[in-house]
Amino acid sequence: MKMFIPNYFGCFSILLMGFLTLLLPGWLQDWCLRALKSQDWISIEFFRRESRFLKKLSFWSVAISGFVSWTTTGSFAGAILFLLVLPSFFLTLTARRYARVKNQVAQDLMNNLYAIKGLLDVGTPFPQAVQFISLESSSQATFLLSRIVRGFQNGKSLETNFKKLEFRSPGEWVYRSLILVEQAYRKGLALSPLVENLIQILEVEFQAEKRIKRLQTEIWVQAFVASLIPWILGLVCWRFQPEIMEDAVGSSIGKFVFLFVIFWEGLGIWILRRVNRFY
Amino acid sequence: MDTSKSKPVLLKKELLLFFDILALYVSVGYDLSYAWNEAIKSSELFQRPDSHQSMNTVLQNLESSFGLKSYRYTFGVLRHLYHRGASLTPAVQAFSRTLRRDLERDFEAHLRTAPTRANLCLLFFFLPPALVLILFPFLEHLRQVLSQF
Prior knowledge:
The complex is a heterodimer.
Chain A: H1 8-35, H2 41-73, H3 77-121, H4 126-136, H5 140-153, H6 158-164, H7 172-187, H8 191-240, H9 242-250, H10 252-276
Helix pairs in contact in A: 1-2, 1-3, 2-3, 3-4, 3-5, 3-8, 4-5, 7-8, 8-9, 8-10, 9-10
Chain B: H1 8-27, H2 32-42, H3 55-65, H4 72-84, H5 89-125, H6 127-147
C-alpha cells in the first residue's frame, strides 16, 4: 500500500485557495464596481443581489479548476491560474448582466414618464402622480421612484434625492428629464407640454441607443469570429500535423510571433471599441 | 466641462440639453440671467458665472471661446437680442431645433460610416494575425527543413 506522504505544496495550495475563495466575492465586487466606473445606487444594488451568484461562482470555479489541474498535472497550478483570470472572466460575465439591468431601469423610467404624463393630463398634481406610479407599478425603476418619492414628500427636491442615491446612470437623459420636470413643477410652469416634449426627446435617444447597440453587436460578432478563426485553425493543424505546430511554437521567433499576434488583436479590439462609440 | 477638449458630439448633446432647459425658463418670461443660472444647474456644460460678471460678458466670452466654433454665433445672437430687449424664446427654441437636427445628422453619418471603419479595423488588425497564424507554422517548418541542407 502506498504511504501517504504529506505534500506541502498541495496543503499550502488548498489553504491559499480556501482563503482566496472566502475573500474573492467581496474583493471582486469592489473591483467590478471600480472597473465599471459606477458607484451609483443601481450598481450597488445589482452587486448586492449578485453576491450569492458570486460566491457560488468563485467556489465552484476554483474547486473544478483545482480538481482538473490536480488530476491532470498533479498540482493546483490550474486553480491558481484560474484565480488570476477569474476577475476578468467575472467582469465580462457581469458587465453584460449589469448593462441589461441598467437598460431595463431606463426603459421603466421612460414608461413611468408616460404614465406621469397621462396623470398630469387629467389634472393630477405632480407629487401625487409620482407617488401613484411608484405604488402601482412593479418595475425595478419603481423601487427607485418610491425611495425618491419618500424624500420628495419630506420636502426634498428630486435632484437631492437622486444625488443622495448617487443615481447617475442609467439613461442620463431620463434622470435629467425627471429633474427638469421637478424644477418646472417647483417654479409653477406647465408640466404636461414639457413632459410630452421630453418623451419625444427620450424616444429619439432610446431609438438611437438601440440602433447603435445593434450595429455594435454585428461588428463585435465579426471581430470575434475573425480573431478566433486562426486559433481554431491552429488547433486543427496541431491535431493533424503536430510536428509542424510544435516546431513553430517551440522556436524563439514563434513565441515572439504569437505574443505579437495577441498584442495586435488586443490593440484591434481597443480601437474597434473607440471607433464604435458615438458619444 | 472643458469645451475646448470635449468631443464635438458630446458638446452638441450637452448644448442641446442646455438650450432645452433655457427655452423652458425663457418661454415663461424669466429673465435670461435667471434662466441661465437655473439651466446651468442641470447641465455640466458651463460653470456658474461670477456674481460680478454681467450676462453680456458671459455671452461675449462664450462667443469668442466656445469649443464648437460652428455654434459660437448662437451666443452672439443671444447677446444681441438680450441687449436689445427682444424676445429670446423663438431664438433659443430655434437653436435647440437646429442642434437636434445636427445631432441626428451626425448620428446617421456615424451609422453610415461605422461599418466601413469597423471593416477597415478588421482588415488591418485581424486579417494579418490570421494570415500569420495560418502561414507561420508552415513557413517555420519549411525554414527548419531547408536549414538542414
